[in-house]
Amino acid sequence: MPVNCRTAINGAKIAATYMGTVIGAGFASGQEIMQFFVSYGSVCFVSLVLAGCLFGWLGGSMLELGRQQQLKNYTQAFYYVCGPYIGRLLDILTTLFLFSGLTIMLAGAGTVCRDYLGLPFNLGIGLMAAATVLTVCFGLEGIAHGNFIAVPLLIGCTMLTGINSLLYHNTNPIVLPLTAEPKLQPAPHWLLACFQYVSYNLILAASVLVPLGAEIRNRNDRCWGSTLGGLFLTALALFIACVIVLHLPDIAADEVPMLHISRTQHPLSYVAYGITLIIALYTTAIASLYGSAAKLCAVLRVNRFAALLVITAASIALSQLGFSALIGALYPVFGYSALWFSLKLLWHSIQRKG
């Protein structure tokens, strides 16, 4: 897979768009890493590497599928991979998941503003909703540009917070072994939790990657983008897991663990991570709103702006339920429902390479 300057830049844009859909409220805050990986003990590091490999492989498969079949939306991908009956069921569940994802992102913005920036909960929700609607009005190009700016900021601030923690603990490997926390586990086995996590994130990413793949002509760009996205997701997730482990059990009950950790460090680190976390919430919110609005437009034949307003208003109302409660209740359910698509996509990819 030769990589020239053009491929590197285009691949970086694809990777940033991919990462932006995954690095949202739960990932950047540490809440998802805590529940789906760290809660299973030291095996979490093996599980995270497996998840990263699956992200790189299956993300590339979605880009290739979108290009080869010229698919315009994630619904067509579900029908192509899973058949008409399972595809229809996944279509319905994904629409609900995308709407739920937007709701969780808005709730996360409200939580960060209220608990860490000293601003009203509903102000955070309102500002996030306005920024999300404005970006989605510009379509895929607006989403790509937003992610290309936001993702490097998030990586930088996460690394800063993590390095400070590692220096404080002198990177002593004795602190890394940990015991499992069954109360936080979303599935009875770590391998199932890993596939749950990858599956529901792939469902969210499909809303952007499938139509994006249809637009990217150069195969090297697509391959480099998915590979780079998988590598960065793996590295960042492992880094966040290490930082969380270093601060257990103090942050076990915290809604936003990484922000709590940054608060114990330099004030600038705390403020920077709070702002960047809001940006991370924004990147997933725009993908969720884009996918759910496209579906509403197709079903009800309404114009895009009307669909954006209706969906956003409903999400604002439901976001009052809270951030961690929504993640704990909804993400495992959608993880189970999306497992079939992930397995079928994996099998489809193996057959194509064979």
CATH superfamily: Hydantoin permease
- Which structural class best describes the helix and strand composition? mainly alpha
Low-confidence stretches: none
What number of structural domains do the residues give?
Answer: 1
Distance between the termini: 18 Å
Percent range for β-strand residues:
under 5%
- The helix-strand sequence is HHHHHHHHHHHHHH
Got a strand count? 0
Major beta-sheet overview: none
Shape: globular
Highlighted features:
single chain, 354 residues, mainly alpha, Hydantoin permease, 14 helices
What's this, in brief?
This protein is 80% helix and 0% strand. The chain is mostly helical. It has one domain (5-346): Hydantoin permease.
Description:
The protein has helices at residues 5-22, 25-29, 31-36, 44-69, 74-82, 84-115, 121-136, 139-168, 190-215, 219-246, 257-263, 267-300, 304-318, 323-353. It is mainly α and 354 residues long. Helix 1 (5-22) crosses helix 12 and helix 4 (44-69) packs parallel to helix 9. The protein is built from 14 helices and no strands. The chain has one domain (5-346): Orthogonal Bundle (Hydantoin permease). Helices cover 80% and strands 0% of the residues.
